[in-house]
Design brief:
Chains A, B: It is an enzyme of class 3 (hydrolase). Chains A, B: Keywords: Cytoplasm, DNA damage, DNA recombination, DNA repair, DNA-binding, Endonuclease, Hydrolase, Magnesium, Metal-binding, Nuclease. Chains A, B: It is found in: Cytoplasm. Chains A, B: One of its GO terms (molecular function) is DNA binding. The structure is a homodimer of 192-residue chains. Chain A has 192 residues and is of the alpha/beta class. Chain A has one domain: Nucleotidyltransferase, domain 5, CATH 3.30.420. Helices cover 58% and strands 18% of the residues of chain A. Chain A has 5 helices and 5 strands, in the order βββαβαβααα. A 5-stranded mixed sheet of chain A has the order 3-2-1-4-5. In chain A, strand 2 and strand 3 form a beta hairpin. In chain A, helix 3 packs across helix 5 and helix 4 packs across helix 5. The longest helix of chain A is centred in the last third of the chain and has 52 residues. Chain A is elongated. The first copy, chain A, starts with a strand and ends with a helix. At the A-B interface, helix 1 and helix 2 of A face helix 1 and helix 2 of B.
Chain lengths: 192, 192
Amino acid sequence: MRVFGVDPGLTRCGFGVVDGGPGRTVRCVAVDVVRTPADEDLSRRLLRLADAVEVWLDRYQPEVVAVERVFSQHNVRTAMGTAQAGGIVALAAARRDLPVMFHTPSEVKAAVTGSGRADKAQVTAMVTKLLGLKVAPKPADAADALALAICHLWRAPMRSRLEQAQARAAELAKAHRARLARAVAETGRKAQ
Amino acid sequence: MRVFGVDPGLTRCGFGVVDGGPGRTVRCVAVDVVRTPADEDLSRRLLRLADAVEVWLDRYQPEVVAVERVFSQHNVRTAMGTAQAGGIVALAAARRDLPVMFHTPSEVKAAVTGSGRADKAQVTAMVTKLLGLKVAPKPADAADALALAICHLWRAPMRSRLEQAQARAAELAKAHRARLARAVAETGRKAQ
């Protein structure tokens, strides 16, 4: 499966494409950072980003897009720009009928380093190692985009097993309720 | 000038188109609220909204788009959705080379009611009166979208006068610096 990971941002937006192989093997297909000029109108910056996303979706044909979920940031203005950038990416994917998954920063950190509280340097080091890169991806946004894609590759099977287990549990519960209803009905008939 | 005002949101997104006439006259062209299902994927919801925006841009051919600027909200999740919805609208406008202006809620309230701290009922009442509507636009998001468009129509000339004044001041300052430099050079020559 090929995943397009995006660490959203207006000033710097990390793009990373990763292929998942058998087991937990991962391969870096492409990584870059898209920048938009801070002195330009917000709408023009969003357009630049949207155009870059289209180019990458065309070029790399990912099967799924993984975007970092923004919860909050110290700087509200930055958080809004980040949310808007993420929304633009999700929209571009939805237009192509590609599934879009959002992962929180701690999910991403935990997936690649084992700790949800790892720092940027640890994430970069693990991403470099996991993908067998000769040079660490820079800046951190580029490494984060790759980490997101890896996180998605490793969490997706877990998530699907979890969903299967939940579906099976729901089935068993339904069968149990049906048996119970039959038993109650039978008791009622016997009592009459 | 025809303005497309948008009060962004995922659950409810207010759309309002207003024509500005001579002086401060305003006319309501269209108003509605677009809703997207809360149980749908974020990317699908953004796509529904983007499609609705395209329909309105095609149908009403506005010259400018005015969007409410989100600074912060109590609910971070809602704020992110609102920011993303606003970003989608700005992107659609930018794709058509339409200018996009963001106005804060207090700018909008001040423009239509005279007070930046007016409540929703006051804004709705003033919008209804200013546009000569027989029925108050509902829900509040619809009234807010119209208020945004009116705010833009009334602030745009003020803003352009301000920009002209700033440009003139910059010119004067530049001429003054040039005169000063000439005077300094002349003093230097005399001293030699």
